[in-house]
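Record 1 of the preview.
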Amino acid sequence: MKTIKSQVCICGAGISGVFTAYLLGKKGYDVVLIEKMERFNPNGADIIKPPVINIFKELDLYDEIINLGGIERKMVDMFHEGDLLNRFTYEGDDVFLLFPCEKLTKLIAEKLKSLPNVQLFFGEHIEKVEMDHDGTRVSTGNVTFVAEICVACDGDNSILRQEAGLKLQNIEIDQMILFGELNSTAGVEEVSKVYVNCNGGFTYLYPIGGNKSRIVIGFNGEEYRSSIKDADNSVIVEKIRKYLSNEVNELVGTIDSSTQFVPVQPKLFKCEHYYFRRIIFVGNTVHCVHPLSGNGMNLSVEDAYFAVAQIDLFYTQGMKFEACMSDYENQRKKIANNFVDYSYRLFESTFSREQFIQVLNINKYKTTYEET
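->
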């Protein structure tokens, strides 16, 4: 079996893995990025919050995102059972950015090709993991990757997390979420809209560029299994129109038999630790938030940014690895856990207008750095 050595081996080529590889590659580290699929993993949210916008500006990525169709927005309309509760407006210079995660991943992945110190390997399924305090050996069917540091970005079913024996605190939630794409309308182009109902359902509408809008629909799990799962799209339209406002009926009316929806069952969990020996865990290997909060992808990008900063301290300042990673865990775990809890409270509150108003916190839509 072939052996490939590197300073850092990153497992998983979604947005967190690609971004981690880019940051480390720019700093000159010898990096290997492996992915089980035959391509980069494009799955993720489309909403970029101010803290991540600032990171992208620091890295001179922001203007490129805008040039590729990123949409700056300052307002979000929140509805409950069709009634407008509030139009939240970002103050001052703060905006949020709408840009498909697939395009963001592709943009950063293209930049990896110009970094000779970053090697990419696709179609590599992890079969064995050996770890100690000096490094990690990740074996696939063809190659053994030997690295001083391993960064786990292999998703919510992380093999590396399981091999490390880290425990999750799962939060049970019975819901199914459908992701689709529609032609856009003037109302959605102007303001993103979030609708929730008293049955634990929601519909999120926002533009993604190219005269297209994303539609994200959440159904109560029992309702989905009994009347949605095997039905045609007309049933979906009938269900969500009961709690949408008239201004989006035109958009929803374009849903027909050709509209493709991708079903996803949401997971909510926290992890006890963010590192084990020489493995660092990033993104949804250690936390999953409810999509209604709009923060999952942002937390993953922030994790990668701070993890790389700690890796850099380890190599350049001679700090002990455990001390660097303890700082990373203490900072990121507190923030992520805060958002997991908030996203669950937000979902639970949708069943009551009064509770939803009480729990809804616009600051949670603006930032992920501070506890709010």
